[in-house]
Amino acid sequence: MIKKRWICLFVENDIGVLARISSLFSGKSYNLDSLTVGRTEDRTISRMTIGLTSDDMTFEQVKKQLNRCIEVIKVVDFTDVSIHKKELMFIKISSCSRQDMNDIFQLSQVFNIRVADCSPSSAVVESVHTDEKNDKIAIVFSKYFSNRVEIVRGGSVAIEAVSADS
């Protein structure tokens, strides 16, 4: 069954590790939906959160190939695990009228996002939500403000939940 999958990798924090991991995916023609990486509390280890859409067999192959990489310390499958997952998204709206600015502030309240920057004719909003909710927010802003929108998305980060309620 083809579905959205999430993997967390703990890797050595060395030059070229990200390139080698991402080339593993491109070399096998696997498409990544999301890839984020950042240093952990241990400066020698980085944590990658990878989102991809695949079937069960392909996903098992991906995990096996990642486990064979010498830079990979640990592979954690988050697909069927309760996790907290968020994505950072910025939306810049240009050529705004006074009414547009009022609408941006109202939409920000409705979607629980923040106006990060504004001038008399432009605004930048910041959304930290799931990628699914950011998809919906991006659609609304793109339709409402038509060709005056620039969207930047940072990819999801995830961590395993600590309670059964998550």
Summarize the structure.
This protein is an alpha+beta fold and 166 residues long.
Can you walk through the features of this model?
The structure is a single chain. This protein is α+β, with helices and mostly antiparallel strands and 166 residues long. The protein folds into two domains: 3-81, ACT domain (Alpha-Beta Plaits, 2-Layer Sandwich); 84-160, ACT-like. Chain A, domain 2 (Alpha-Beta Plaits), CATH 3.30.70.1150. It contains four helices and eight strands; from the N terminus they run βαββαββαββαβ. It has a four-stranded antiparallel sheet, with helices on one face. Strands 6-7-5-8 form a four-stranded antiparallel sheet, with helices on one face. The radius of gyration is 19 Å and the shape is elongated.
Task: Offer a few descriptive terms.
single chain; four-stranded antiparallel sheet; 166 residues; alpha+beta; Alpha-Beta Plaits; 2 domains; 4 helices; 42% strand
Largest sheet: 4 strands, antiparallel
Distance between the termini: 25 Å
Taken as a percent bin, the fraction of beta residues is 35-45%
Overall tally of domains: 2
The SSE string, one letter per element, is EHEEHEEHEEHE
Quaternary state, please? single chain
CATH superfamily of the largest domain: ACT domain
Strand order in the largest sheet: 2-3-1-4
Total number of helices: 4
Please render the helix and strand layout as text.
Blueprint: E1 3-12, H1 17-27, E2 32-39, E3 45-54, H2 56-68, E4 72-77, E5 83-93, H3 98-111, E6 114-118, E7 123-129, H4 131-144, E8 149-160
Antiparallel strand pairs: 1-3, 1-4, 2-3, 5-7, 5-8, 6-7
